[in-house]
């Protein structure tokens, strides 16, 4: 099978994970959808660069990380979170606790510095090991550990969970 065909097939299987990662990085649904689109375009355009002996998910996640950093640099400012459009649909609904909690978590994640949000997305959301995240982010494992610890502390403080 040609590498572009393998990449195309692999991307289809990776879409749910890629979308989760993009939402964790971007915070906003629209930005995440745009990021997924950019990643898919880049991966397909550069499919010849993927080595079949490497795992496709890590290659695609690296593309996503780099694309998101490019976007943040292009904006010239940190990402700000505004309430998602769908969050307003249940404002008067007393049973809207779960969406409200999801919005609060999304806001807490968005408040993290981008390097901490990346580690949370890769380790806690996508389940990469500390070693895998360190390789992908090109930093020592100790950096992953400290960023994750600071991110967890910030999330707990933001969410009011001091336990």
Question: Could you characterize the architecture of this molecule?
Answer:
Residues 103-155 form the RNA polymerase sigma factor 70 region 4 type domain. This protein is mainly alpha-helical and 163 residues long. The chain folds into 2 domains: 1-77, RNA polymerase sigma factor, region 2, helix turn helix motif (Rna Polymerase Sigma Factor, Chain: A), CATH 1.10.1740; 90-163, Winged helix-like DNA-binding domain superfamily/Winged helix DNA-binding domain (Arc Repressor Mutant, subunit A). It has 7 helices and no strands. It has helices spanning 3-26, 29-45, 56-75, 97-111, 114-125, 130-137, 141-159. Helix 1 packs across helix 3 (56-75) and helix 5 (114-125) crosses helix 7 (141-159). The longest helix has 24 residues, at 3-26. It is globular, with a radius of gyration of 17 Å.
Task: Tag the structure with descriptive keywords.
single chain, mainly alpha, globular, 7 helices, Arc Repressor Mutant, subunit A, 2 domains, Rna Polymerase Sigma Factor, Chain: A
């Amino acid at each position: 099978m040609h590498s572009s065909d393998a990449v195309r097939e692999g991307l289809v299987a990776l879409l749910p994970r890629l979308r989760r990662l993009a939402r964790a990085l971007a915070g906003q649904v629209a930005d995440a959808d745009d990021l997924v689109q950019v990643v898919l375009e880049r991966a397909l355009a550069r499919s010849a660069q993927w080595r079949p002996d490497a795992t496709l998910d890590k290659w695609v996640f690296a593309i996503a990380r780099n694309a998101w950093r490019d976007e943040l640099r292009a904006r010239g400012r940190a990402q700000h979170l505004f309430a998602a459009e769908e969050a307003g649909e249940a404002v008067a609904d007393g049973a809207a606790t779960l969406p409200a909690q999801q919005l609060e978590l999304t806001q807490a994640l968005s408040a993290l510095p981008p390097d901490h949000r990346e580690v949370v997305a890769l380790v806690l959301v996508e389940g990469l090991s500390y070693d895998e995240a360190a390789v992908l982010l090109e930093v020592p494992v100790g950096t992953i550990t400290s960023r994750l610890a600071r991110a967890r502390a910030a999330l707990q403080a933001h969410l009011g969970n001091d336990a």
